[in-house]
Fold:
Amino acid sequence: MRGPMLADDATLRRLLAGIARGEADRLAELYDVSSPKLYGLILRIQRDRGLAEDVLQDVYMRIWQAAGSYRPEAGPPLPWLITIARNRAIDSVRRKAEVQGPELDSGEDWVDLLIDPHDEAGAFQDRNALVACLGRLEPSHRDCVVLAYCEGRSREELAARFDRPVNTIKTWLHRALGALKTCLETVS
Amino acid sequence: MSGTRAPDPDDPDLRAAEYVLGTLDAQERAAMEGEAARDPVARARIQAWERRLGPLAMVIPVETPPPHVRAALLRRLPAAGRAELHQIEALRSQLRRWRVAAGGAGLLAAGLALVLTLGPWQRPSDGRYLAVVQGGGTLPALIVRVDTRTGVAMVRPVSAEAPADRSLEVWYVGAQGPRPLGLVGTAASQMRLPAGAAPDGVIAVSVEPPGGSPTGQPTGPVVYTGKLIAD
Structure:
């Protein structure tokens, strides 16, 4: 599962600055260091590989156009890239009218992975706080949050998985998110 | 406390949270994005949730994409290196080709892969020309009306979008190379054509620092182009 090491923040910032000046070579470099991470994220959400590849290409075109709006003082560059990738991937699955296939069990325990020490997690400082606060949630509520975030599951898919009405899932999500916010404010 | 009372489903912070989580439907997502574009408070709520949930993104395993994606991406970009010069050169040679074979289609010159819909070349009538200036989208970016007798170009933005903290500058690219016309504003504006502007030129739009190119030549990527056709 280990892929190439991601570049450090300073490198990513330098590449984004070059892209903002219209330097295509810098975009190619950024692609080389960041596409395994972004493609991994996209593929968990958009499971159709052909569509996931289209999303990946769109993500880098978006980065090409938007690099000038990246503000280093607003935060590190990797989360900025991840946000673009997740948003595009979620857009691509939400645009589809029908619900994705029923195979819901990816077998991954995302929370366990989060607890494992992980090199790249340093990009976000509040990992431990998130682990602690997720641990305090009702397990089914927590699973909804994690499956939605990591795998792009819709409310309808979660309703099918947990055999509950969509409105109940909505309430679970709201409860969980509200509790997470309160917990993160006290822990960190 | 939060576990006993049902949360208010209209709470704007919960909508921002669900936006980041990804559980809003397509319509709700679009509404949230519209709100974020107008309202810095909504934007800040979204960013706060991106930070809170962000550590989860780091646990997802990497996966190397197939090589053809990289190749396709790079084909959509201008030639490596001195991108803007390549673009202008490409526009110029495109212009030369157009002069030979009027009415061609398919321009791959500018910063983005561009698909131009060209009207049939018409005999210049009374000095009035029109350029539908397009990027990759379905809507034209700008409509430029040119009157070569009065030397005035009327530039009407339709869907042109400048990146944050950048200006869009309009260029007339003729045999002498690019000449600045002016900056794209939010409303239609009149711009003066360079002396000797001929109707077989190309209108191009580049991304520039605020206030326009400091050099008098395009310095950023060319994002839209269009050819003048008889009006």
